Amino acid sequence: MTLKLYGFWRSNAAFRVRVALALKALPYEEIDIDLLSGDQFDSAYAEINAGHVVPTLVHDDRQIFQSLAIIEYLDEIAPEPPLLPAEPFERAYTRSLAMVLAADVHPLTVPRVRQHLKDVLAADSSGIEAWCRHWTAEGLATYERLLLRRPPAPFALGEFISVGDIGIAGQVALAEVYHMDLSSYPQVEALAKRCFALSAFSDAHPFAQPGYRAKNPR
Ligand SMILES: N[C@@H](CCC(=O)N[C@@H](CS)C(=O)NCC(=O)O)C(=O)O
C-alpha cells in the first residue's frame, strides 16, 4: 500500500492525520503544500483537493480529504490500534471530542478566514492574532469543562488512545502555535502532556516538522 499525505507544518488538520498514521505505524510520504505562500490554490493541487485545503491522503491512486474522515478510513484499513471503539456511546463520545476542535474551533483560524478578516474587515495582524487566540481559548475552555465532567484515565476514554485525544492534543498544538499559556486549563494540559510524551504525537507537532525547523534554526 502506498500512502501520500499532502500537508503543511503548521496545518492542525495535517497534524491530526500524522498522529493517526504514526499510531498505526503506517509508512507514508508527506508532500508540503505551503499554505502561507498560497500553494493550495495552484492548479496541480486543485486537481488533488477541490477545497484547496490540506490534508489530502492519497492511498494508491485514491484521494481522501477531511482529517476526521481520513482518520476513520485509516482505522478501517488498518484496525490496530483502534482509534475509535466499537461501543456506540464511547464511539460517539470520542468523535464528539475530536469535533470540538475540527468542527467548532479550528475552522475559525485557518488561513482563508484570516485572509478574509484582512481583506473584507480590514483587520490588521494583531487583530487577526487576537481573533485566533480568542477562538483557541474558547476551545481550550470547552475541553477543560468536558474533561472535568469525565476525567481522563489516563486518556479520554481510558487506557487506549482514541481520536478524541488527537483532538485535545491538536487543540494544545494550536494554542502553542499562538504561544498561549495553558495554565488555566490543567486537565487539558495534563492530557496533552501524556499524549506528547509519545513519539506519535511529538513527532507530528507543527514545531517538529522540517518546514518549521527550516524557518526557525536553533
Ligand atoms: N476540516 C478540514 C480542515 C481543512 C483546512 O481548512 N485545512 C487548512 C490547514 S489546517 C488549510 O488547508 N487551509 C487553507 C486555507 O485556508 O487557505 C479537515 O479537518 O481536514
UniProtKB/TrEMBL annotation:
- As recorded in UniProt, its EC number(s) are 5.2.1.2
Keyword Cell inner membrane assigned to the entry: answer is: no
Q: Which Gene3D superfamilies match?
A: 1.20.1050.10, Glutaredoxin (3.40.30.10)
Is Isomerase tagged as a keyword? yes
Q: Which keywords does this chain's UniProt record carry?
A: Isomerase, Plasmid
Q: Give the Gene Ontology MF terms in alphabetical order.
A: maleylacetoacetate isomerase activity
Family annotation (PROSITE patterns): GST_CTER, GST_NTER
Any Pfam family matching the protein: GST_N
Domain GST N-terminal: residue ranges: 1-82
Locate the GST C-terminal domain: which residues? 87-218
Q: Which InterPro entries match?
A: Glutathione-S-Trfase_C-like (IPR010987), Glutathione-S-Trfase_C_sf (IPR036282), Glutathione_S-Trfase (IPR040079), Glutathione_S-Trfase_N (IPR004045), GST_Zeta (IPR005955), Thioredoxin-like_sf (IPR036249)
The family assignment reads: Belongs to the GST superfamily. Zeta family.
Name used for this protein in its record:
Maleylacetoacetate isomerase
